[in-house]
Every structure is written in structure tokens, then in C-alpha cells.
Amino acid sequence: MSFWVCARVSVGLLALAPPLLSSGGVGASEADWRAEVEALMDEGSRTGAASGAYVEARALLDAQLADQPHNPEAVFWLARLDSKTGRPLAAAAAYFNLVESDPAHHSAIAGLAYVLRYAGFHDTSIALYALLVEQQSAVYGASRAWSQTTKNHLYTGDYASAHASDLAMYAAIRDKGEAVTEKHLFYSGLVAAYRGDAESAHAFWRASEALRPNTVWSNFAASYAAAFAGDPITLESKLAWFEALGVQDGERYYRFVHLHALGGNSDAAAMALAGTLQRGFFPIDYWRNDPWVSAVVQLPATEALFAAAESQRQAFFPLLQRIHPWLETQTTS
User: Fold this and answer.
1) What are the φ and ψ backbone dihedral angles of 270, each rounded to 5 degrees?
2) What is the dihedral sign for C-alpha 21, 24, 25, 27?
3) C-alpha torsion 120→122→124→128, nearest 10
4) Angle between helices 216-229 and 250-262 (to 10 degrees)
5) CA 129 to CA 123: how far, in whole Å?
6) pLDDT at residue 84 in the model
7) Which letter, b or e, does each residue of 281-301 get, where b requires 16 or more Cβ atoms within 10 Å of its Cβ?
8) C-alpha count within 13 angstroms, C-beta hemisphere, residue 39
9) What are phi and psi of 156, to 5 degrees?
10) Which of 180, 114, 172 is nearest to 146 (CA)?
């Protein structure tokens, strides 16, 4: 574990927002609304539904698109908002339209890869992130691409590859002089836990909490540590914190499926799985094969959820028929 402990982790988060899409600059009014949307998106990511930030962001974007329906900045940010608020197909279609127009639009490529992971198309998502690494994107750096790739590998049950990409992420962080965050450490703990290395998992989660206490990611770290340690008091306290926050992102919401299942409450876990689907996260093969929720997915109540998830997944196929040929032209050129 000295590999990452000795990294002297710092507190700052990696910047999540992409730079401006066009090279010709933007007018003052566009810069103003974009900055406001960006701030609202950041607030929504940190504070969840309770703040109403995503609602405000959608109102701003709707107003911009009413005046300029094809404004690529507004289209991009609406796609990003859709990806965070349970509209994955709309987000994917918008992202790919941007990518078709500009193959070097790395933020849109990353957004597309992100949404496809949520829909369970992991091989395509991995290929898109690999493209960003290959092209040495300055907009979406290698550490971020490797971090997202790790999740894809976790969801396919390829824990060795997840571990390898997690290490590649830390190598990229070192190479660029970036900061390790509590989110990185949380997910490294997940990788270790899936690999059966409980000692390393708890060490990563403790480090996450120590680095930035009481954030979304450090509280997830504390929650998983409590669930695996059989500490129901801490687990219930953290679940109450998240309930007050109001988590809207589907992938994050799936954490509650884990936490309730690991805490022995299969009924609550099944309800959380329904919330996960509602929020646009439905990698059904992962659901079926996730060792931590095996008792949950066998409940009769989940049959309808799997059917609904499969229907949403099928809706992506026409778009994938456009994405795959495009991706081949990018990787073979």
C-alpha cells in the first residue's frame, strides 16, 4: 500500500468541466450562461437533488436552445445534464451528433463513453476511453480515462483488468502532477474489495475519509467500510446523510443497492435498484453477476426491473449501429 500512501495526496479535486468547445471564442452573454450552467452542474454533483441546481441548469439550457437550437455549447451541456438526470439515450444521441461533427471533440467522446457504461455497453465504452488515451487528449486526461475504464472492468467482473487500469490511473496522475482525490481512493477500495483484498480496501477507504471528510465520496468510503465491517450504526448514519442529500446520479445510486444488500436488507436493496433504473443506470449483466447483490436480484420484485432495463437497453441499438462504424474509422486511421 506504500505506493499510494507515499504519493502525498493533496486536497484539490480534478477539474470535471471541459473547456470551451469552439476555438473562435464566445460572446459575453454565452460566456455568462455557460459559467452559470457549469456552476450549477458542479453544485448538483456535490449536493444532489436537495439544492435544485439541476432544475435551474435545465431551465437555463432550455432558454438558450430555444434561441439557438444548434448551439454546440448548449447541446453539450444539455447532454451532460441528461446523463446526470436519468436521460441516458437522449444524452448519448446528442454526444454522438457532436462527435460526428467534430471527431476531436474529446469532451463529447468522454460523455458518450460515460453514458454507454451506464447502459451496460462496456466494450464500446472502454474503446472510447482508450481512444482518448491514444490521442493524448488535453481536454480529458489519461487519468480520468483510466479511472472510468476501471469501472467498466469492475462491471464486467474482470477484476484483474480493473486493478491494472486503476494502477494506470495513478501512474497518469503522477506523470501529470495531478492530485489524488477522495473519489480515486474510494474506487480503489472498491477494486480491492472485489478482488477479495479486504485489508487494502479498508486502507483505501480510511485514506479517502482522511483526505476530505464528509464529502459524497468519502462518505461512500465510510459507508462501505461500515457495511463490510458489520457496523450498522455507522452505516445507518451515512445512509441518512445521503437520503438528506438526494442522490440523482444512477451510478451513485447503485451504491445504495450494495450498502443495503451488504447490510442484510434485501428489500431496501431492491427498492434502491428500482431507483437506480429510474436514474438511468441499467447495466443488467452487472446487476445479474454482481456478487454483492446476488440475493437481491433473485427476488421476484426485481423481475419487472430487469425487463424494463432490457427495454431501455434495446433502445440504444440503433445508435450503436452508428457509433461502431465511426469508432472503427478512428481506431484504424
Assistant:
1) -65, -40
2) negative
3) 120
4) 20
5) 10
6) 85
7) bbbbebbeebebbeebbeeee
8) 7
9) -95, 0
10) 172
Q: What is the CA radius of gyration of the chain?
A: 19
Q: What are phi and psi of 158, to 5 degrees?
A: -95, 80
Using CA atoms, how far apart are residues 171 and 12, in angstroms rounded to an integer?
Answer: 18
Residues 216, 197: contact at Cβ < 8 Å?
A: no
Instruction: List the one residue out of 210, 209, 168, 204 whose CA is nearest residue 189.
Output: 204
Q: φ, ψ for residue 276 (rounded to 5)?
A: -65, -45
Provide the grid cell at 75.
447541446
All cell numbers assigned to 312: 431501455
Of 130, 136, 175, which is closest to residue 153 (Cα–Cα)? 130
Give Cα 242 to chain centroid, integer Å: 17
Where residue 32 falls among pLDDT bands split at 50, 70, 90?
A: confident
Q: What is the rounded distance in angstroms from the CA atom of residue 189 to the CA atom of residue 114?
A: 21
pTM of the model: 0.86
Using CA atoms, how far apart are residues 234 and 67, in angstroms rounded to an integer? 50
Looking at the predicted structure, is the pLDDT value of residue 175 above 70?
yes
Q: What are 140's three cell numbers?
A: 480529458
